[in-house]
Amino acid sequence: MKLNLNLKYAVLYSIIAIISVVFYIAFGHHLSRILESIVMNTGLEISEPLIYMSAFFVLFILTDKLYNLFTGTIANKSIEQKANQLIDSIDVKTQRESERMINALLVHLEAYRPYETSFVPTIIKTAVKVTLIIASLFFIDGFAASILLFTAPFIPLYYVLVGLQTQEESVKQATRFDNIGTLFLNLIRGKDTVKNTNSKETVIKRLEADNKGFVKETMHILKYAFQSTMMLEFITILGIGLVALEVALRIIIFQNISFYTAFFVLLLAPEFYNALKVLGTEFHNGKLAMGSFEKAEKIINKPKMNTSYRGKTESFAAEAESLSVGHGDKILLNNSDFTFSKTGLTAITGESGAGKTTLLRTLLGLHEPVSGQLNVLTKDIGYVSDQVYFSDTTIYDYVSANNHSEDEVHGILNKLKLSASIDNLEQGIYTPIVNHDIPLSGGEIVRLKMARVLINKPEIIIMDEPTEFLDAETEQLVMKYLTELKETSAIIAVIHRRQLLSIADSHYVLDNGELKRGDAV
């Protein structure tokens, strides 16, 4: 079985486990000698064996604790590394992908944690323990060792078969979880749409179907867990019973075994089977965890988005050469050449679904084009999206981007007439934004995004519907600042409201795969 563990750590795990088990066997040896002396009155002076027994018992406890501490530390570092790999893999193109990423990071990766914290250490410790116990018993009682050797394979054979099925069911369960999570988030976002289109019954049926599937997969897993536990208990009791029977026959009938040997065998045999039984339970949990990890691993191993199409230009904000943009087989911009000026406002219009937002995402480096080259002036780009999205932060941190003082933030908020609304919040500009929840109206959110851009003044500003949700007065206010900002920055904006065209320096229309020059007004 291949373990997700570095060879160096596997060797260290094994060394600590060997030392721990040797201490336990040494403890059992001296305990057996002491009891034989007491029961059989052999005349052994027990003071020295008692000291050894106590010392080995303490050493066994300490090394066992050390093993758990060391393996836990290494496992947590490994999980942290995998979490960082997931974070490094973030180049999501859709909301659905972002939701899968969150599930992988916060749910599936956490469900995988027991694999490295418990399953892998148990596998190594058990392999060491059963090997050393059988080796020791062959020197003490070959018959008992043979019984252990004969019955032991039945336990791993059974839980391997169960575990493989468990992993398959776990993958199905994790997939169901992703579907439920995505559907629920989409439902929350589109609750007004559901209400206005009378789609309540359809949504409920979809949720119920996914929920029933999730419960079904979970019950299958619990069934395998129950069957596995029952069979492991049966095999363990049977194995210990056979060893006890062998010892009893040799003591009572054949009388060819000493008390020391009998007790030592009966001390080690249960430990042998219990180790295998624990391994059986951990194997079930381990395969369950691997099922979850498969969902995260797909994201970790996903090929990185190709960014070789993005070059550097000194003459323009953006320069395209034979650029084609689309989704799959659908081409939205076909073999286009264009340039956007280093300063001024470039407006892009077009019918809904023509590909305007996709073009902006290509300029940002968030969407890989089908073909062609796109040269960009700088990486200093500000983005005002048409979607309401904020990471978990505060209003101050969001606007300032850790580059501006509290007074500067208050200044820009005041200019955009946001101060009154934000000052009315209990924590003011330090109000936390959690799970995109911000106590502002749609127009105020747009102005907040504008505040971040205006205070930081990036060289390129990309906007998607910058005056969406704004009333006429606020729109005029935003246009005033955009007019000032375009003197030093390149503003590339997708617009629907014609008012913005009055301050545009150039105008492009995206239509039928072509980016045509419109009338600059």
Keywords:
521 residues, alpha/beta, Rossmann fold, 6-stranded mixed sheet, 4-stranded mixed sheet, ABC_transporter-like_ATP-bd
Description of the molecule:
By secondary structure, the protein is an alpha/beta fold. It folds into two domains: 7-300, ABC transporter type 1, transmembrane domain (ABC transporter transmembrane region fold, Up-down Bundle); 310-517, Rossmann fold (3-Layer(aba) Sandwich), CATH 3.40.50. It is 63% helix and 12% strand. The chain contains 14 helices and twelve strands. It has helices at 7-40, 47-88, 95-140, 142-151, 154-189, 191-196, 200-254, 259-300, 356-364, 395-400, 406-415, 419-423, 442-456, 472-485; strands spanning 310-312, 318-327, 330-340, 344-350, 371-376, 381-384, 393-394, 432-433, 460-464, 490-494, 506-511, 514-517. The strands form three sheets. A six-stranded mixed sheet has the order 6-9-10-4-11-12, with helices on both faces. It has a four-stranded mixed sheet with strand order 1-5-2-3, covered by helices on one side. α2 runs parallel beside α8. It is elongated, with a radius of gyration of 34 Å. The protein starts with 6 loop residues before the first helix and ends with a strand.
